[in-house]
Amino acid sequence: xxxxxxEADVRRVTAVIEEMGFQARPMVGADRTAIEVVGSDxxxxxxxxxxxxxxxxxxxxxxxxxxxxxxxxxxxxIVRLPGGISIGGSEIVVMAGPCAVENxxxxxSAATAxxxxxxxxxxxxSFKPRSSPYSFQGLGAAGLALLDRARAETGxxxxxxxxxxxxxxxxxxxxxxxxIGARNMQNYSLxxxxxxxxxxxxxxxxxxxxxxxxxxxxxYILAEGNPDVILCERGIRGFDSATRNLLDLNAVPVVHxxxxxxxxxxxxxxxxxxxMVPPMAMAAVAxxxxxxLIEVHPSPEHALSDGAQSLDRPEFARLMRDVQxxxxxxxxxxxxxxxxxx
Length: 342
Ligand code: PEP
Ligand code: MN
Known about the structure:
Layout: H1 7-19, E1 23-28, E2 33-38, H2 46-50, E3 79-80, E4 86-87, E5 93-97, H3 104-117, E6 121-123, H4 141-154, E7 157-161, H5 168-174, E8 177-180, H6 188-195, E9 201-204, H7 211-223, E10 229-233, H8 251-258, E11 263-265, H9 267-271, H10 277-286, E12 291-295, H11 313-330
Parallel strand pairs: 5-6, 5-12, 6-7, 7-8, 8-9, 9-10, 10-11, 11-12
Antiparallel strand pairs: 1-2, 3-4
Helix pairs in contact: 3-4, 3-11, 6-7, 10-11
The protein binds phosphoenolpyruvate and manganese (II) ion.
Protein backbone atom coordinates (compact mmCIF):
# COMPACT_ATOMS: atom_id res chain seq x y z
CA UNK A 1 0.00 0.00 0.00
CA UNK A 2 1.05 3.62 -0.47
CA UNK A 3 2.50 5.58 2.40
CA UNK A 4 -0.48 7.30 3.97
CA UNK A 5 -3.05 4.75 2.78
CA UNK A 6 -5.95 4.79 5.24
CA GLU A 7 -7.24 1.88 7.28
CA ALA A 8 -10.36 1.99 5.13
CA ASP A 9 -8.16 1.54 2.00
CA VAL A 10 -6.52 -1.51 3.57
CA ARG A 11 -9.92 -2.93 4.53
CA ARG A 12 -11.25 -2.45 1.01
CA VAL A 13 -8.25 -4.22 -0.57
CA THR A 14 -8.56 -7.03 1.97
CA ALA A 15 -12.25 -7.42 1.14
CA VAL A 16 -11.61 -7.61 -2.62
CA ILE A 17 -8.85 -10.22 -2.10
CA GLU A 18 -11.27 -12.34 -0.05
CA GLU A 19 -14.01 -11.84 -2.61
CA MET A 20 -11.57 -13.24 -5.20
CA GLY A 21 -11.29 -16.40 -3.09
CA PHE A 22 -7.90 -15.78 -1.48
CA GLN A 23 -6.76 -15.04 2.03
CA ALA A 24 -5.42 -11.55 2.75
CA ARG A 25 -2.69 -11.08 5.35
CA PRO A 26 -1.96 -7.44 6.12
CA MET A 27 1.54 -6.78 7.48
CA VAL A 28 1.64 -3.40 9.18
CA GLY A 29 5.02 -1.66 9.01
CA ALA A 30 6.29 1.56 10.56
CA ASP A 31 4.99 3.77 7.77
CA ARG A 32 3.25 1.50 5.29
CA THR A 33 1.29 -1.73 5.08
CA ALA A 34 1.90 -4.71 2.79
CA ILE A 35 -0.88 -7.25 2.14
CA GLU A 36 0.10 -10.81 1.31
CA VAL A 37 -2.28 -12.77 -0.93
CA VAL A 38 -2.28 -16.49 -0.10
CA GLY A 39 -4.34 -19.62 -0.26
CA SER A 40 -4.74 -20.87 -3.81
CA ASP A 41 -2.52 -21.75 -6.74
CA UNK A 42 -4.93 -20.03 -9.13
CA UNK A 43 -3.42 -16.95 -10.76
CA UNK A 44 -4.29 -13.66 -9.03
CA UNK A 45 -5.93 -10.98 -11.19
CA UNK A 46 -3.51 -8.27 -10.14
CA UNK A 47 -5.28 -5.73 -12.35
CA UNK A 48 -8.36 -5.85 -10.12
CA UNK A 49 -6.30 -4.74 -7.14
CA UNK A 50 -3.99 -2.28 -8.90
CA UNK A 51 -6.70 0.33 -9.37
CA UNK A 52 -8.00 0.38 -5.78
CA UNK A 53 -7.38 3.50 -3.70
CA UNK A 54 -4.19 3.34 -1.64
CA UNK A 55 -2.60 0.51 -3.64
CA UNK A 56 1.03 1.20 -4.56
CA UNK A 57 2.51 -1.85 -6.32
CA UNK A 58 1.61 -5.46 -6.96
CA UNK A 59 4.61 -7.75 -6.51
CA UNK A 60 4.27 -11.23 -7.94
CA UNK A 61 6.04 -13.92 -5.93
CA UNK A 62 4.77 -16.92 -7.91
CA UNK A 63 5.13 -17.25 -11.70
CA UNK A 64 2.07 -16.57 -13.86
CA UNK A 65 2.69 -19.83 -15.76
CA UNK A 66 2.37 -23.10 -13.88
CA UNK A 67 2.77 -26.29 -15.91
CA UNK A 68 5.69 -24.80 -17.84
CA UNK A 69 7.60 -24.07 -14.63
CA UNK A 70 10.38 -25.97 -12.92
CA UNK A 71 8.32 -25.94 -9.73
CA UNK A 72 5.64 -27.95 -11.54
CA UNK A 73 8.16 -30.47 -12.84
CA UNK A 74 11.78 -30.58 -11.73
CA UNK A 75 13.08 -33.05 -14.33
CA UNK A 76 13.48 -31.93 -17.94
CA UNK A 77 10.70 -32.82 -20.37
CA ILE A 78 12.02 -35.25 -22.94
CA VAL A 79 9.99 -35.10 -26.14
CA ARG A 80 10.11 -38.53 -27.74
CA LEU A 81 9.92 -38.66 -31.51
CA PRO A 82 9.59 -41.59 -33.90
CA GLY A 83 12.79 -43.49 -34.65
CA GLY A 84 14.08 -43.24 -31.09
CA ILE A 85 15.05 -39.57 -31.35
CA SER A 86 14.34 -37.36 -28.37
CA ILE A 87 14.63 -33.66 -27.63
CA GLY A 88 15.33 -32.43 -24.12
CA GLY A 89 17.69 -35.18 -23.01
CA SER A 90 21.39 -35.38 -23.78
CA GLU A 91 21.01 -35.54 -27.61
CA ILE A 92 21.45 -32.44 -29.75
CA VAL A 93 18.79 -32.56 -32.44
CA VAL A 94 19.48 -30.74 -35.70
CA MET A 95 16.46 -29.79 -37.83
CA ALA A 96 17.41 -28.42 -41.22
CA GLY A 97 15.98 -27.73 -44.63
CA PRO A 98 14.58 -24.95 -46.75
CA CYS A 99 12.58 -22.03 -45.43
CA ALA A 100 9.76 -23.03 -47.78
CA VAL A 101 8.89 -26.16 -49.73
CA GLU A 102 9.14 -24.88 -53.30
CA ASN A 103 8.95 -27.97 -55.54
CA UNK A 104 9.80 -31.65 -55.51
CA UNK A 105 13.34 -31.29 -56.82
CA UNK A 106 14.27 -28.55 -54.41
CA UNK A 107 12.86 -30.40 -51.38
CA UNK A 108 14.35 -33.80 -52.17
CA SER A 109 17.72 -32.31 -52.91
CA ALA A 110 17.66 -30.35 -49.63
CA ALA A 111 16.49 -33.44 -47.75
CA THR A 112 19.29 -35.60 -49.15
CA ALA A 113 21.84 -32.91 -48.35
CA UNK A 114 20.79 -32.43 -44.74
CA UNK A 115 20.49 -36.15 -44.16
CA UNK A 116 23.95 -36.85 -45.54
CA UNK A 117 25.38 -34.13 -43.34
CA UNK A 118 23.73 -35.75 -40.30
CA UNK A 119 20.54 -33.80 -39.52
CA UNK A 120 17.72 -35.84 -37.97
CA UNK A 121 14.71 -33.70 -38.88
CA UNK A 122 13.75 -32.00 -42.15
CA UNK A 123 12.25 -28.53 -41.87
CA UNK A 124 10.28 -26.75 -44.60
CA UNK A 125 7.21 -24.53 -44.56
CA SER A 126 4.23 -25.35 -46.74
CA PHE A 127 2.07 -22.62 -45.28
CA LYS A 128 4.26 -19.54 -45.06
CA PRO A 129 3.43 -16.57 -42.85
CA ARG A 130 5.04 -13.80 -44.92
CA SER A 131 5.46 -10.19 -43.89
CA SER A 132 3.99 -9.13 -47.24
CA PRO A 133 0.80 -10.57 -48.76
CA TYR A 134 2.48 -10.35 -52.18
CA SER A 135 5.37 -12.68 -51.24
CA PHE A 136 5.33 -16.44 -51.93
CA GLN A 137 2.79 -17.96 -49.53
CA GLY A 138 3.86 -21.60 -49.81
CA LEU A 139 2.51 -24.65 -51.64
CA GLY A 140 -0.09 -25.52 -49.00
CA ALA A 141 -1.40 -29.09 -48.99
CA ALA A 142 0.71 -29.98 -52.04
CA GLY A 143 3.82 -29.10 -50.05
CA LEU A 144 2.74 -31.37 -47.20
CA ALA A 145 2.53 -34.26 -49.66
CA LEU A 146 6.09 -33.51 -50.77
CA LEU A 147 7.29 -33.50 -47.15
CA ASP A 148 5.60 -36.86 -46.63
CA ARG A 149 7.43 -38.18 -49.65
CA ALA A 150 10.78 -36.74 -48.49
CA ARG A 151 10.34 -38.55 -45.17
CA ALA A 152 9.60 -41.82 -46.95
CA GLU A 153 12.72 -41.44 -49.10
CA THR A 154 15.17 -40.26 -46.45
CA GLY A 155 13.85 -41.41 -43.06
CA UNK A 156 14.11 -37.84 -41.79
CA UNK A 157 11.39 -36.65 -39.42
CA UNK A 158 9.34 -33.63 -40.49
CA UNK A 159 8.78 -30.27 -38.80
CA UNK A 160 6.45 -27.89 -40.63
CA UNK A 161 4.34 -24.90 -39.73
CA UNK A 162 0.60 -24.52 -39.13
CA UNK A 163 -0.48 -20.90 -39.51
CA UNK A 164 -4.13 -21.10 -38.44
CA UNK A 165 -6.36 -23.32 -36.28
CA UNK A 166 -8.18 -24.64 -39.38
CA UNK A 167 -4.89 -25.94 -40.80
CA UNK A 168 -3.61 -27.74 -37.69
CA UNK A 169 -5.26 -31.07 -38.42
CA UNK A 170 -3.95 -31.15 -41.99
CA UNK A 171 -0.42 -30.28 -40.87
CA UNK A 172 -0.48 -32.66 -37.88
CA UNK A 173 -1.47 -35.54 -40.18
CA UNK A 174 1.94 -35.26 -41.89
CA UNK A 175 4.25 -33.50 -39.43
CA UNK A 176 6.19 -35.26 -36.69
CA UNK A 177 6.46 -31.83 -35.05
CA UNK A 178 3.98 -29.01 -35.67
CA UNK A 179 5.69 -25.62 -35.84
CA ILE A 180 4.04 -22.47 -34.57
CA GLY A 181 5.76 -19.45 -36.04
CA ALA A 182 7.01 -16.36 -34.29
CA ARG A 183 4.18 -14.21 -35.66
CA ASN A 184 1.65 -16.61 -34.18
CA MET A 185 3.16 -17.07 -30.73
CA GLN A 186 0.22 -15.29 -29.13
CA ASN A 187 -2.48 -16.62 -31.46
CA TYR A 188 -4.34 -18.27 -28.62
CA SER A 189 -6.88 -20.19 -30.68
CA LEU A 190 -3.99 -21.65 -32.72
CA UNK A 191 -2.11 -22.56 -29.52
CA UNK A 192 -5.18 -24.31 -28.09
CA UNK A 193 -5.81 -26.22 -31.30
CA UNK A 194 -2.13 -27.26 -31.39
CA UNK A 195 -2.53 -28.41 -27.80
CA UNK A 196 -5.10 -30.94 -29.03
CA UNK A 197 -3.25 -31.99 -32.20
CA UNK A 198 -1.64 -35.09 -30.72
CA UNK A 199 1.81 -34.13 -32.04
CA UNK A 200 4.77 -32.36 -30.43
CA UNK A 201 4.76 -28.60 -30.99
CA UNK A 202 7.74 -26.39 -31.80
CA UNK A 203 6.80 -22.96 -30.45
CA UNK A 204 8.87 -20.05 -31.76
CA UNK A 205 9.40 -16.94 -29.67
CA UNK A 206 7.81 -13.81 -31.08
CA UNK A 207 10.36 -11.06 -31.89
CA UNK A 208 8.46 -8.82 -29.44
CA UNK A 209 7.92 -11.31 -26.62
CA UNK A 210 9.63 -11.65 -23.28
CA UNK A 211 10.70 -15.09 -22.11
CA UNK A 212 7.83 -15.00 -19.63
CA UNK A 213 5.37 -14.40 -22.48
CA UNK A 214 6.93 -17.32 -24.38
CA UNK A 215 6.40 -19.58 -21.37
CA UNK A 216 2.81 -18.33 -21.00
CA UNK A 217 2.20 -19.17 -24.67
CA UNK A 218 3.60 -22.67 -24.00
CA UNK A 219 1.22 -22.89 -21.05
CA TYR A 220 -1.75 -22.68 -23.44
CA ILE A 221 -0.54 -25.82 -25.23
CA LEU A 222 0.28 -27.66 -22.00
CA ALA A 223 -3.08 -26.70 -20.49
CA GLU A 224 -4.83 -28.49 -23.37
CA GLY A 225 -3.09 -31.71 -22.35
CA ASN A 226 -0.16 -31.74 -24.77
CA PRO A 227 3.07 -32.08 -22.73
CA ASP A 228 5.37 -32.12 -25.77
CA VAL A 229 6.31 -28.50 -26.27
CA ILE A 230 9.71 -27.53 -27.69
CA LEU A 231 10.55 -23.84 -27.37
CA CYS A 232 12.57 -22.03 -30.02
CA GLU A 233 14.64 -18.86 -29.73
CA ARG A 234 14.78 -17.22 -33.18
CA GLY A 235 15.84 -13.66 -32.40
CA ILE A 236 13.99 -10.69 -31.05
CA ARG A 237 13.67 -7.17 -32.43
CA GLY A 238 16.69 -5.09 -31.47
CA PHE A 239 17.75 -1.58 -32.41
CA ASP A 240 20.67 -2.56 -34.62
CA SER A 241 20.05 -3.12 -38.32
CA ALA A 242 23.41 -4.89 -38.73
CA THR A 243 21.52 -8.17 -38.33
CA ARG A 244 17.92 -9.17 -39.06
CA ASN A 245 17.17 -9.89 -35.41
CA LEU A 246 18.94 -9.95 -32.07
CA LEU A 247 19.53 -13.62 -31.29
CA ASP A 248 18.92 -13.85 -27.57
CA LEU A 249 21.10 -16.77 -26.50
CA ASN A 250 20.47 -15.74 -22.89
CA ALA A 251 17.08 -17.36 -23.43
CA VAL A 252 18.70 -20.81 -23.38
CA PRO A 253 20.02 -20.78 -19.80
CA VAL A 254 17.08 -18.64 -18.64
CA VAL A 255 14.53 -21.14 -20.00
CA HIS A 256 16.49 -24.05 -18.56
CA UNK A 257 16.36 -22.37 -15.16
CA UNK A 258 12.68 -21.40 -15.24
CA UNK A 259 11.23 -24.32 -17.16
CA UNK A 260 11.57 -28.05 -17.77
CA UNK A 261 10.75 -27.61 -21.47
CA UNK A 262 13.46 -28.10 -24.11
CA UNK A 263 14.66 -25.12 -26.12
CA UNK A 264 16.24 -25.12 -29.57
CA UNK A 265 17.84 -22.18 -31.37
CA UNK A 266 17.25 -20.90 -34.92
CA UNK A 267 20.34 -18.91 -35.90
CA UNK A 268 19.02 -18.49 -39.47
CA UNK A 269 16.17 -16.12 -38.59
CA UNK A 270 18.17 -15.01 -35.57
CA UNK A 271 20.86 -13.42 -37.71
CA UNK A 272 19.42 -13.20 -41.24
CA UNK A 273 22.90 -13.66 -42.72
CA UNK A 274 24.42 -16.87 -44.00
CA UNK A 275 27.94 -16.03 -42.77
CA MET A 276 26.67 -15.59 -39.21
CA VAL A 277 24.67 -18.81 -39.03
CA PRO A 278 27.58 -21.21 -38.26
CA PRO A 279 29.17 -19.15 -35.45
CA MET A 280 25.81 -18.52 -33.78
CA ALA A 281 24.78 -22.17 -34.19
CA MET A 282 27.98 -23.16 -32.39
CA ALA A 283 27.35 -20.56 -29.69
CA ALA A 284 23.83 -21.95 -29.21
CA VAL A 285 25.16 -25.47 -28.69
CA ALA A 286 27.81 -24.14 -26.30
CA UNK A 287 25.04 -22.34 -24.38
CA UNK A 288 23.27 -25.67 -23.85
CA UNK A 289 20.56 -25.62 -26.53
CA UNK A 290 18.69 -28.89 -27.00
CA UNK A 291 18.86 -28.55 -30.76
CA UNK A 292 19.15 -26.29 -33.79
CA LEU A 293 16.76 -25.19 -36.55
CA ILE A 294 18.71 -24.23 -39.65
CA GLU A 295 17.70 -23.13 -43.14
CA VAL A 296 19.48 -25.03 -45.91
CA HIS A 297 18.73 -24.63 -49.62
CA PRO A 298 20.32 -26.52 -52.54
CA SER A 299 20.78 -23.20 -54.28
CA PRO A 300 20.19 -20.28 -51.92
CA GLU A 301 20.45 -17.68 -54.69
CA HIS A 302 17.26 -19.11 -56.21
CA ALA A 303 15.33 -19.50 -52.95
CA LEU A 304 11.78 -18.09 -52.95
CA SER A 305 12.23 -17.01 -49.32
CA ASP A 306 15.11 -16.37 -46.93
CA GLY A 307 17.89 -17.15 -49.43
CA ALA A 308 20.29 -14.70 -47.76
CA GLN A 309 20.27 -16.70 -44.54
CA SER A 310 20.18 -20.18 -46.08
CA LEU A 311 23.29 -22.36 -46.05
CA ASP A 312 24.14 -24.33 -49.15
CA ARG A 313 25.08 -27.98 -49.03
CA PRO A 314 28.86 -27.68 -48.35
CA GLU A 315 28.31 -24.92 -45.79
CA PHE A 316 25.84 -27.07 -43.87
CA ALA A 317 28.10 -30.13 -44.06
CA ARG A 318 30.97 -28.06 -42.63
CA LEU A 319 28.76 -26.75 -39.84
CA MET A 320 27.63 -30.28 -38.95
CA ARG A 321 31.25 -31.40 -38.63
CA ASP A 322 31.91 -28.51 -36.27
CA VAL A 323 28.72 -29.20 -34.27
CA GLN A 324 29.76 -32.83 -33.94
CA UNK A 325 33.22 -31.83 -32.65
CA UNK A 326 31.69 -29.41 -30.15
CA UNK A 327 29.13 -32.00 -29.03
CA UNK A 328 31.96 -34.52 -28.53
CA UNK A 329 33.81 -32.01 -26.39
CA UNK A 330 30.65 -31.43 -24.34
CA UNK A 331 29.99 -35.15 -23.99
CA UNK A 332 26.65 -34.93 -25.83
CA UNK A 333 25.58 -37.05 -28.80
CA UNK A 334 24.16 -35.52 -31.97
CA UNK A 335 20.88 -37.26 -32.85
CA UNK A 336 21.21 -39.44 -35.93
CA UNK A 337 18.55 -39.67 -38.62
CA UNK A 338 15.95 -42.35 -37.92
CA UNK A 339 17.27 -45.81 -38.62
CA UNK A 340 20.90 -44.71 -38.42
CA UNK A 341 22.59 -45.33 -35.12
CA UNK A 342 25.90 -43.60 -34.55
C1 PEP B 1 10.40 -20.22 -40.40
O1 PEP B 1 10.89 -20.97 -39.55
O2 PEP B 1 10.43 -20.45 -41.60
C2 PEP B 1 9.75 -18.96 -39.96
C3 PEP B 1 8.78 -18.41 -40.68
O3 PEP B 1 10.29 -18.48 -38.85
P1 PEP B 1 9.71 -17.39 -37.80
O4 PEP B 1 8.30 -17.81 -37.49
O5 PEP B 1 10.65 -17.55 -36.65
O6 PEP B 1 9.82 -16.06 -38.47
MN1 MN C 1 12.44 -18.64 -43.12
